[in-house]
Write a structure and sequence with these properties.
By secondary structure, the chain is an alpha/beta fold. It has a single domain, classed as Flavodoxin domain (Rossmann fold, 3-Layer(aba) Sandwich). Helices cover 34% and strands 17% of the residues. A hairpin with a 2-residue loop joins strand 3 (78-86) and strand 4. It holds the Pfam family FMN_red.
């Protein structure tokens, strides 16, 4: 399935089950509002509420919720992974998403391109300590490795002050630098998705 330019899927990789409040959910909703304003409709999925089996195959068997989520990822031109920071790293839920996406390395389209070529990915990271740059770097490398294309400044984040307890969802208002980073991510992701839809990557070269 080829990417479409008007669909976005945001994966909220919080460790908190719905309906518990989540800073990642708030940021995901802010991003989705921006995408909607740009003409890219979409959805937010709280991944922890799904039974995503461990593994590196597209389908790990009975009870695995990944195949249905995979179909939604392939049907979206833009994927956003939103993760909290725990012990300086992305959440285990986000890590599992990356591990399952690894299966796409062996799947190609009719012209021999990895199936995720033409799809755009971006990231959002939250936490109360430093670590956002490292997590963004890890996510971008992994997403690019499996075939996604990253837009310029395709990562937004917020880190609270060290040794304090304030969460993003507890702020009185969204900081202006975060608003600007969100807007840039959305605009560049939508632009890139449109470019790739009109001018796909070339077919795989013969070996």
């Amino acid at each position: 399935m080829r990417a479409t330019e008007q669909r976005v899927l945001i994966l909220n990789c919080t460790l908190k089950h719905a309906p518990e409040e989540s800073s990642c959910q708030l940021l995901a909703e802010q991003l989705l509002e921006g995408f909607t304003a740009q003409g890219a409709a979409g959805d937010i999925v709280r991944v922890v509420d799904l039974d995503i089996a461990p593994g590196v195959k597209a389908d790990m068997g009975a009870g695995d919720a990944w195949p249905a989520l995979r179909s939604r990822i392939l049907g979206a031109g833009i994927l956003v992974i939103c993760t909290p920071t725990w012990l300086g790293h992305m959440s285990s839920v986000a890590q599992r998403v990356l591990e399952r996406l690894d299966a796409e390395l062996g799947t190609t389209d009719d012209e021999g391109r990895p199936i995720l070529f033409g799809h755009v990915a971006a990231t959002a990271v939250l936490g109360n300590e430093d670590g956002a740059h490292k997590i963004t770097a890890d996510l971008h490398q992994a997403l690019n490795d499996v075939g996604f294309t990253m837009p310029a400044q395709g990562g937004t984040y917020w880190n609270g002050a060290a040794m304090e307890k304030t969460d993003y969802k507890d702020l009185d208002e969204t900081p202006e630098p975060v608003k600007q980073a969100n807007a840039t991510l959305v605009a560049n992701a939508v632009h890139l998705a449109r470019v790739l839809a009109e001018q796909p990557y070339p077919a795989a070269a013969a070996g």
